[in-house]
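Possible race condition, two jobs.
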Amino acid sequence: MKTFWIFAALFGIFAVVAALPAYSGEQKGDEAPVMEVQAPEEEPPVVEAPEESPERQSGSGSDSWGSKVGTNKPKEQINVIEAPYVCPDGQLLDHNGVCRDMW
């Protein structure tokens, strides 16, 4: 029964709002200034497409991408230590792969 009265109240509110005069927005000083856009007097120059060179006409797309994509072999790892991994007692392996005394 409560839901009936809730909907009845809402319906009444909407009926009152609908009966109010609508705001048209036409009041003094409410108009936005209108700017006129003038067309350019001169048309922009027409640029013709350059003629295609023979290099561009020959070959396929994969040929042209072959030079842009890296086809070189990957570089060797430079941080690999080529040294004995076990140092004598009292020494530790440094970043260059050399056994150094502990301090």
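Job #2 (started ~2 s after job #1):
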Amino acid sequence: MTEVTPASESHRRHDPEQIKRKRQGRRLSTLSRRLSTARIGRYLAFLLLTVTASLLPMVARGQGTPVAQAAPSAAPMFWYLLAAAVAMLVPVGLVLIGVAGLERDRAWNAALGAVAAVSLAGLAYWAVGFALQFGGIGLAYARPELRGLVWEWSPLPADWGVGWGVAGLSGWLLSGAEVTALVYALFLSHLPWLFTATLLPVMALRGRAPAVATLLIALLVGGIVYPLAGNWVQGGGWLAALGRNIALGHGFVDVGGAGTVFLLAAVFGLVALVVWAPR
């Protein structure tokens, strides 16, 4: 039996061939990780293009809907769609940042979980969320294309004012004569921010909460939480009308809607982390 001496062990540790193989293994591992991230990015880009292509026929149907006055021209509609497509880079970037430092298997699971979450959130927003958020926007903005969205539920009587709305009640499933091209453009322009508000708490709970819980959170955010908060601020609800009703400045002003998105996501994520905190 050959005795292993300290000199042979030192020679094995400093063997050039062995060092070269270790370096090649590290390079292959890094390259594989980069390719995995790039593949996830391609799948997310493909999902984005698929969603956009599936929604374009809805816009075409909305443009053909008969209305009493002329529909908006094609130029503003193009810019609405372009802005929505560019804004989709925000949730895509959040997913890529969230999976960049993970191992290959965990990165795939995290990316697929994020895609499933935003898909459920988008479905809930299409079915009920948009109606809750913008079902009464026609009362706040005198646009002929929005004249069908004039149903807003308020817990206070009309004597208190007309700006105490809490939830919209029209535009369910994005169907009906009240849904015009501008309504579809409004829906598309809020999808990226809905996805962002959904992804932030979902990615924060990765590895802490069960997968079913994160999907339920996505449904809750897309169907109820984000639409109601958006209604109060951007859909003609009570927060935006505080200045008119009780002379409280200009009411709640959220230029661009970023404050609502990130404040909502932060509060929801904090509550979820407290619930699923390590014991």
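The chain has one domain: 6-275.
Logs attached separately.
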